[in-house]
Amino acid sequence: MNISDLIIPLIFAGVLIYGLCVRTDVFAEFTEGVKDGLKTVYEIFPSLFCLVISVGVFRASGGAELLTSALSPLLGAVGFPPECAELMLLRPFSGSGAIAVFERVLTDCGADSFAGRTASVILGSSETTFYTLSVYFAAVRAKKTRYALFCALVGDFVCAAVSAVTVKMLL
Amino acid sequence: MMKWIMTGLILLSVIFAAVTGRMDCLSAAFLEECSGAVQLALSLAGIIALWSGIMRVAQSSGLTGKLAGIAEPVLSKLFGGLERGGRAMQYITLNITANILGLGNASTPFGIAAMREIEREERSPEPDRASHNMIVLTVMNTASLQLIPTTAAALRLAHGSTDPMEILPCVWITSVSALTAALTAAAVCRAVSRRKLR
Question: Are the beta carbons of A145 and B137 closer than 8 angstroms?
């Protein structure tokens, strides 16, 4: 058994026991929360739907591969493993797509190669940026997101750059 | 923002598909993805319902307030102007804790609830404009706070890595750098937008 397998059961048991101890009606509160949760899903669904379709269509178009082959020589010149270019491009858009590309890098180059390690660090230190942005802002009325996207992309860019540097220096 | 992402991606897809000659894949993708999106929403609905339920119990019993009290000194530096020990702070704490522990699917419902509470507390005169606190929270969630990259490590092991966890120090340095860069960018953008207003 893994330590991390304990976290969720402990949270659930702990919260429920604490609730009972301070005389909260845990069942009534839980079901109220579920109701709120479903309302939230209803509200964020349209944005999520649009994003999933746009990203899926983009992946089917072969655009990521095309951009990757255009970018590869440039990235190779600055010392970034070209094999990771597609991962870097796809990571902000699609979690499942990024994992598929990641596994391909590991199969083609080996998990302990420079490209394989860099890909691992990129996957481990980034999130699905566009998914997060669309879901979070779908929940509020603010439709003008101002500098949110720009700052998030700054983070993704730094993530890709630093991943290659740290792997080269530390491993 | 969403209108640009959506039209941009679809327009690019049509152009790329014309170049690569994959227009047939493209038209199939539209139909496949719409049912994929519904499936994703359904599994998300289950996860959000589960965590919203337990979150509500933790909140009405006063547990989240205690947790937020511990994290408050650090978080109040990042999120200015929010009520001390208020609901927004509580949800932000839960969101960040879940992220650090790697409970990815719990952090989303907490984050969404935090966004709503920020909106409610700030009562902005321009509700259609994102506030700085909303942007900071979102940007923190687009960067990775996760301590142990379990997915990457598991896949490395499956692909024959001799030491799947060797990437840990690199992941930490990279995550912290990316987060710092993103938050610095946000602080700079705020300063610039304030100067413009004057």
Answer: no
- Chain B window 166-185: which residues touch A at a Cβ cutoff of 8 Å? 166-167, 169-171, 173-175, 177-179, 181-183, 185
Which of the residues B91, B135, B150 would you substitute to probe the A interface, choosing the one with the greatest number of A C-beta atoms within 10 Å? Answer: B135
**This prediction's pTM:** 0.91
* Residue B5, in any domain of the structure: no
Instruction: Give the number of domains in chain B.
Output: 1
Please indicate, yes or no, if residue B59 is contained in any of the structural domains: yes
Q: CA B91 to CA B79: how far, in whole Å?
A: 12
CB contact residues (below 8 A), chain B span 62-91, against chain A: 62-63
What's the CA gap between B104 and A13, in Å, rounded? 19
Per residue in A12-47, pLDDT (tens digit) is 999 999 999 999 999 999 999 999 999 989 988 999
**What ipTM score was computed for the predicted complex, to two decimals?**
0.91
What per-residue confidence (pLDDT) applies to A3?
A: 65
